[in-house]
Design goal:
Strand order of the largest sheet of chain B: 2-11-3-6
Distance between the termini of chain A: 65 Å
Structural class of chain A: mainly alpha
Largest interface: A-B, 52 and 60 residues
Shape of chain A: elongated
Strand content of chain B: 15-25%
Helix content of chain B: 25-40%
Radius of gyration of chain B: 30 Å
Number of helices of chain A: 5
Structural class of chain B: alpha+beta
Order of helices and strands of chain B: HHHHHHEEEEEEEEEEE
Number of helices of chain B: 6
Number of domains of chain A: 2
Helix content of chain A: over 70%
Strand content of chain A: under 5%
Number of strands of chain A: 1
Radius of gyration of chain A: 22 Å
CATH class of one domain in chain B: Mainly Beta
Number of strands of chain B: 11
Oligomer: heterodimer
Shape of chain B: elongated
């Protein structure tokens, strides 16, 4: 085995160890994040809050403004994603209905 | 000039330093890529590490949702995600900021209500919404008064702030999705107050004559979000709420008086009416000045 071969093998091992440390052992912890970076379950709960308020005030413009903070292309995209997660996570039917109501108001599937 | 064979021979004499170079270079590249170029977890962030303005948005959303569904358990579990040290205080302070900045009245109201509910008080029902609520009601142009130091020493409160910066490399705790309590819509009942005491006071420390309101629950804790109506003259009226100056206590509110004007104070949801409130002339070492009023209401046992 030549010196260059050994050099590259050790280099690759070093890169691997660096990635393991940086991704698994001691990953970056974020501060000062934005709402669009929230984990999916928190995003879904945020959408559910919007739906709960919309159920009472029926203010679609207000709801769309709040959903815009999620950073999706459209409010409906945020709703669809939240609905998918809520179904998958087996949210209570009353919550699913709130999400569906708002989604329908935005022109999405019911 | 060295021949190829001589170079190889010299390099062999260097031992295994090249392997150390390789491992250090590899580790550096790996760490740089994993921390700077492609760090994990950016799409996995939690509400408590939101930037403070986004935390405000999130908090206001929790309060609005509570206002809509009356589900305190759900609101509490959501508030816990933000990891605020003193949730009731933070909510009341945010309500105050919103009103001071001329923001959304309904949002401020919802925040005050949730603050109150978290303290174990039953919030008052939503009043007819005026367009704006002054932090301190300025009723009429005031006659000249002797300037004096600030009325009440603010109670220092400890708040946490997130240090600036975008990313800090520290171990990340694993969090599991928070199960949500079942949504149960419910009407928000009203728990009335009774008048405990009201008196005219002479306090030279007060810059201007004011009506000070102190609303407490049966445990003696301040109750934010209590609506107070102040009426004077020909059907003129302002309303304000306790808890919007949390530095003076969550159950505190005040409104400025104009000497010579007679006021009536009403706690609309409790049937309390106090009339003939007027600034009294006081005298002391500082000379003559206008006195104030203090009104104490409490929730009965």
């Amino acid at each position: 085995m030549t010196r260059w071969t050994r050099f590259f093998i050790v280099l690759i091992v070093g890169i691997g160890l660096g990635l393991l440390y940086g991704w698994v052992v001691n990953p970056v912890e974020y501060v000062n994040t934005t709402i669009d970076s929230l984990r999916e379950d928190y995003k879904t709960d945020y959408v559910l809050m919007v739906a709960e308020v919309y159920h009472t005030n029926q203010d679609l413009e207000w709801a769309m403004n709040r959903l815009a903070l999620l950073g999706d292309e459209t409010s409906q995209a945020s709703l669809e994603a939240a609905l998918d997660f809520a179904v998958q996570a087996e949210y209570a039917s009353s919550d699913l209905n709130l999400l569906k109501d708002l989604n329908a108001a935005l022109g999405g599937r019911n | 000039m060295l021949l190829w064979g001589e170079e190889i021979s010299m390099n062999s004499d260097r031992g295994n330093w090249y392997l150390l170079t390789a491992i250090v270079l590899g580790l550096s590249l790996g760490l740089f890529y994993s921390w700077a170029i492609s760090p994990t977890g950016l799409e996995e962030s939690h509400p408590h590490i939101l930037r403070s303005d986004y935390k405000d948005v999130y908090r206001a959303m929790i309060a609005s949702a509570y206002d809509a569904n009356g589900d305190l358990a759900r609101a509490q579990s959501r508030m816990a995600l933000l990891k605020d040290e003193d949730e009731a205080y933070v909510l009341a302070a945010q309500a105050q900021r919103i009103l001071a900045e001329g923001g959304d009245y309904k949002e401020a109201r919802a925040l005050a209500n949730l603050s109150s509910a978290l303290l174990g008080n039953v919030p008052v029902a939503d009043p007819p919404a005026p367009t704006e609520i002054p932090l301190t009601s300025t009723l009429e142009p005031s006659p000249t008064l002797t300037a004096s130091p600030s009325p009440l020493p603010p109670t220092p409160r400890t708040t946490t702030s997130t240090p600036p910066g975008t990313a800090v490399a520290t171990p990340t705790a694993t969090t599991t999705p928070t199960p949500l309590p079942t949504f149960t819509p419910s009407a928000t009942p009203i728990l009335p107050f009774i008048l405990k005491d009201h008196e005219a006071i002479c306090d030279p420390a007060l810059d201007v004559p004011v009506i000070q309101i102190y609303a407490t629950n049966k445990k003696g804790e301040g109750v934010p979000g209590v609506e107070v109506l102040v009426k004077w003259g020909d059907n003129e009226m302002e309303n304000f709420f306790t808890g919007l100056k949390p530095e003076f206590g969550l159950g505190y509110a005040d409104a400025e008086m104009t000497p010579g004007v007679t006021y009536t104070i009403e706690f609309s949801h409790s049937g309390i009416t106090i009339s003939e409130i007027e600034a009294q002339e006081c005298s002391g070492e500082a000379g003559e000045y206008w006195g104030s009023w203090q009104i104490f209401v409490t929730q009965p046992d």
